[in-house]
Request: fold
Amino acid sequence: MTVTLKEVAELAGVSRSAVSRTFTDGASVSDKTRRKVEKAATKLGYTPNILARGLTTRRTKLIGLVSNNFHNPIFLEVFDQFTRKLQGVGLRPLLVNLSDETDPEASVRMLRQYSVDGVVVASSTLPPGFSKAFKDAGVPVVNSFGRYSTAPEFHVVGIDNVECGRMAALEFAKRGYKHVAFLGGPDTATSTQDRFKGFSGEISQNPDMEMTVSYAKAYSFEAGREEMQRLLNIRPLAEAYFCGDDVLSIGVLSAIEDAGLNVPGDIGIIGLNDMEMAGWQNINLTTIRQPVQQIINSSVELIVSMLEDPARYPEARLFPCEVIERGTLRPVS
Amino acid sequence: MTVTLKEVAELAGVSRSAVSRTFTDGASVSDKTRRKVEKAATKLGYTPNILARGLTTRRTKLIGLVSNNFHNPIFLEVFDQFTRKLQGVGLRPLLVNLSDETDPEASVRMLRQYSVDGVVVASSTLPPGFSKAFKDAGVPVVNSFGRYSTAPEFHVVGIDNVECGRMAALEFAKRGYKHVAFLGGPDTATSTQDRFKGFSGEISQNPDMEMTVSYAKAYSFEAGREEMQRLLNIRPLAEAYFCGDDVLSIGVLSAIEDAGLNVPGDIGIIGLNDMEMAGWQNINLTTIRQPVQQIINSSVELIVSMLEDPARYPEARLFPCEVIERGTLRPVS
DNA sequence: TTCCATTTTGCAACCGGTTGCAAAATGGAA
DNA sequence: TTCCATTTTGCAACCGGTTGCAAAATGGAA
Reply:
């Protein structure tokens, strides 16, 4: 069925080594035998078995792409970018959906069984111990969208969530909002915690501003809507809400709309991510843009460099965010 | 670094075969040696290398998950379900993003290099020749969300798009719409063609109904919005539109809203898919539900059965759709 | 033509597993 | 205890590749 090295060697009248060598870069083969081999190979439709090769080279070109965010639309963009970039450098993503199992050990074991060359953990909600487990197992790992640390134990690529919180606060101050609110994602997520830290820190600098705080159960439409519905029953209402992320913001917007209130007239909203939907004209969400593409480019770059140097010193790479002004905050006065 | 069979055998004081046998189901090992092996294995943290095993067993448990729909939110649900179900039966998805390369041969070659056990082609827009290429290469393939055929050359699991078109038409008739429109996805997609066939066929049965037809450039928000903006400049307007899918419908809704018209008061809309967003309260789209979960369950079931019997006779599995009534069509009078 | 440095080649062992087969071990029955 | 059918075990070959090493081939220079 599937044609092997041996058959090509026989047809070309050379040794198996010769065939192997014409298919490995930089190996020593004369033009003459290379031509013979190539001719035989194309005739038989031969293509080397990467997994068999991997047995001796210890390179499978397989990268574990691990995530638990299969419900947030931004992750479709993330998967799109990751698969493209990885394919672009000849790597293949083995997708792992962590929504079911929470045991990091099981994933580590599984991915080692497949001798992946490296792992990308793409999540802002997984505990840091998760990426650590790969590192401890000797598997190159980069944690994308993870928490920044000044002494990272493994590679982290993402944004400075503390700074993002600060940006939201400054944006509110600039527009003269006095009573503002932090409406975070789940308070167990490090991203939520960091954003809160930056936000509250900045607000507390401002003696004439006050802040209320609450958390939605997830980074999701339903959770945002639910939490906002609850908040709408409590007076006084805040003038502006910094929401956990865009999809949560959209849930919040829908609750506000149902309550007959107007955005940005009655209430201001700022999200985070700038996913595609945020720009849809019927949503038109003012938000803080997370540079997904740069984060992913950089993550792939890092994982590639770790293939060459697995002991590469862990690094935290942070990308700046920017406010994308659309229609859910009142103008700067 | 990574511990192998041999080391376990040495520690346990048995042959390599014995170790291998304790890790393969149904192999003949006495309880005594099994215990010895297991003890040694856990002590060393041994776990068999699936890829090395695959060399002789010809089973890698790798499944190519091939798609080109990385921009339609419904596919996040699709990827979520597929990865879960595959993991559930011990298979691992190797994700292939076809957005860049269009050459089926390249993908076939690549996936054969990784000796995948099978391939799921998840797309309603890829040409049928694509799945065929895998079949011809001897790789078990199922085409999910593909076009139904009475004489399928490979396994197809999906919906009857002709019937869906008919359902939309009947729904319009039931609600007394007279001038209706088909606003399809790209007219090169077989799904679009089939839906048109069913829709127009049913409308033509109804002498007092008339129909206009147009196509958006893609199954996307922007394409739907753009096409609707164009249509809004042409009089007379249709009373109700059957849109290519949900995300396209949302674009259409946003164009209508911008034009100051009301849904369902001025214009009725019905979509297709029933993706999560369709149920969001600020969208509340009446749509035809495609049973994604059943389609995926069935696809995984089929691929599993093909692993046992690769020559399994090709089958087309169709799942019924149903209208989900929300707020974008006027009530039945 | 001879010599020698350099390039190319094939052999054989290896990567980490599985498996058919023959030999060894086991465990009742007589 | 002996015998024999059944179960368990290890050897050795294999899956489809790569690679170090020594031998063979090549190709100038003298």
In short: The mean pLDDT of chain A is 94. Chain A has twelve helices and twelve strands. Residues 62-159+291-319 of chain A form a domain with the Rossmann fold fold (CATH 3.40.50.2300).
